[in-house]
């Protein structure tokens, strides 16, 4: 029963309903180290109210979680973030943000099941945390693009220099973004979709 004494169970909000024109859906995973902006990206671009599993950080994480560059962060994702965005009238993307701390990375196994591709968010203040993330994607054979999240106090480097630092081949797209802005986050996803399409076209010609 609801609070009004009715037996009606509240359903999803009207704006959360899947568009009736949708014909295809794809699962996209947003990955990166702790505090790089995964939850913010899902929240900024999702057309539905995002599902988050953030918990307040406690002293138990001191000495375990590396929060360098994110010392003011008071909450952290412990399972996943979830959102949805319609790329076109026919194509819908389901977005899954992964937890950043390595002690929660065992959850990645389930989140990557059925994923079409991934976005790797990078913080230039902590490039080293991206190495293991990229390595895990390469081991799994998951196509990905790299998005440099522009934090106000983060150093800026030319894309070619960042590509060298991350040991990325020329074929992997790299873009700059501000995940607080919906249009910027959407453009990252469009970059990923164009990359995935190019891989499909290349495969069809071989």
From TrEMBL:
Keyword entries, A-Z: GTP-binding, Hydrolase, Nucleotide-binding
Superkingdom of the source species: Bacteria
A Pfam family recorded for this sequence: ATP_bind_1
Gene3D superfamilies given in the database record: P-loop containing nucleotide triphosphate hydrolases (3.40.50.300)
CDD domains, per database record: Ras_like_GTPase (cd00882)
Translocase is among the record's keywords: no
Classification via InterPro entries: Gliding_Motility_GTPase (IPR052705), Gpn (IPR004130), P-loop_NTPase (IPR027417)
Family membership: Belongs to the GPN-loop GTPase family.
Protein name as annotated: ATP/GTP-binding protein
Organism: Streptomyces anandii
């Amino acid at each position: 029963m609801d609070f009004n004494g009715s037996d009606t169970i509240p359903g999803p909000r009207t704006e959360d309903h899947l568009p009736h024109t949708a014909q295809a859906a794809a699962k996209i995973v947003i990955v990166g180290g702790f505090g790089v902006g995964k939850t913010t990206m899902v929240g900024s671009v999702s057309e539905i109210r995002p599902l988050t599993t953030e918990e307040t950080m406690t002293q138990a994480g001191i000495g375990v979680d590396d929060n360098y560059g994110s010392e003011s962060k008071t909450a952290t994702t412990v399972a996943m973030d979830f959102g949805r965005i319609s790329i076109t009238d026919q194509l819908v993307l389901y977005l899954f943000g992964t937890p950043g701390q390595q002690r929660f990375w065992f959850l990645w196994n389930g989140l990557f099941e059925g994923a079409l591709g991934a976005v790797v968010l990078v913080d230039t203040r902590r490039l080293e945390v991206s190495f293991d993330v990229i390595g895990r994607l390469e081991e799994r054979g998951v196509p990905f693009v790299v998005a440099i999240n522009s934090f106000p106090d983060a150093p800026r480097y030319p894309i070619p220099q960042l590509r060298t630092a991350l040991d990325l081949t020329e074929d992997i797209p790299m873009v700059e973004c501000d995940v607080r802005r919906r249009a910027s986050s959407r453009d990252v996803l469009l970059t990923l979709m164009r990359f995935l399409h190019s891989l499909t076209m290349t495969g069809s010609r071989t």
